Amino acid sequence: MIRYVPFDELGDTPNIVVDGSGNESTLITLSHWPHSGTPMKLKDDLSTQIVFNYLERPELWVKAEAVSNNHFDEDGLAGIFALLHPTEAGSLKRLLIDIASAGDFGTYRFRDAARAVFTLSAFADPDLSPLGGKIFRHPYPRITASLYSELLPKLPEIVDHLDRFRRCWEAEDALLSKGEAMIRDGSVRIEEIPDIDLAVVTLPEATPACKVHRFTQDRRAVCHPMALHNAIGSFRVLLMQGSTYELHYRYESWVQYQSRRPLARVDLSALAKQLSDEETGQGRWSFDGVDRITPKLAMTGAEESRIPPKEFVALVTRFLAQAPGAWNPYDSEN
């Protein structure tokens, strides 16, 4: 019978890796990660969907003794749970996939999926975790193993009895509601430019950023990412709050997304240099790198840009329209 084994303990155990990269003893990788080698017949937007596709294709099953992942997040948790408990997972399929989507892509259909993600993020947050702070004093592989060991058996209870975990999700759920309300009432304005896969999001100047979670990690946002991502279709997002700007790529453009092909990411390093040359103050622009999971172009050394908003948008749109693609996560058969 297949069992969960921490990634750093796999050794030569024949294994399946869900939502990550395999090792030398991995028999099949069920992952939307770049160049994962997942069979084309199984590919899908999310690793959890890939697992369900695998469970429906017995001719592709392998004789693995273990399942693992090298990082902890909601897509990995839902996918591993489905592989370990296929019958129970089958009855929860739509919700588990939506939990994976809310965790990875910041998009959801069912509010309970968003609340489950907030709960799981709280468990993985050293400042909020019901597990206490002790497990977070260890190296990341040990933290990952502890979170999977604790949350794989607890996932059905979280899904079926969210009310028991209200203290974990209610604060961030309120931020999500606030963000959705700001979009509805026009406090947050969204303009999409489909030709360059860009959403220009204008945020209210007087609203401070609050703590939110993405990929179970701490972030800060004026408008909750789930509120924004549910409202926009673009995978390049320019956030503008007064004269503070940030351009970032969504996670969908890092993985082997299948339901539609995002425009290829372009390297924004040259744009960062151009913007730095345009600045008249102390601020300088930098780009994280096209291969990061959600890289951003942002300014350091100053809080506000000296470049006027309309001019900034023009510089960004012109660059995105002309720059060549610099990232291809897809396996060759795609």
Strand content of the residues, in percent?
Answer: 15-25%
Low-confidence stretches: none
Distance between the termini: 33 Å
| Number of distinct helices | 10
Order of helices and strands: EEEHEHHHHHHEEEEHEEHEEH
- Work out the number of β strands: 12
Outline the structure in words:
With 334 residues, the chain is of the alpha/beta class. The protein folds into two domains: 3-168, no CATH class; 185-322, Roll (Diaminopimelate Epimerase, Chain A, domain 1), CATH 3.10.310. It has ten helices and twelve strands. Strands 5-6-9-10-12-11 form a six-stranded mixed beta sheet. Strands 1-4-2-3 form a four-stranded parallel beta sheet. β7 (210-214) and β8 form a beta hairpin. α7 packs across α8 (225-231). The longest helix has 21 residues, at 140-160. It is globular.
Give the SSE layout:
Elements: E1 3-4, E2 15-18, E3 26-30, H1 47-55, E4 66-68, H2 74-84, H3 86-91, H4 93-104, H5 111-123, H6 140-160, H7 166-184, E5 189-193, E6 198-202, E7 210-214, E8 217-221, H8 225-231, E9 236-241, E10 244-249, H9 269-278, E11 284-287, E12 296-300, H10 309-322
Parallel strand pairs: 1-4, 2-3, 2-4, 6-9
Antiparallel strand pairs: 5-6, 7-8, 9-10, 10-12, 11-12
Helix pairs in contact: 1-2, 1-4, 2-4, 2-6, 4-5, 5-6, 5-7, 7-8
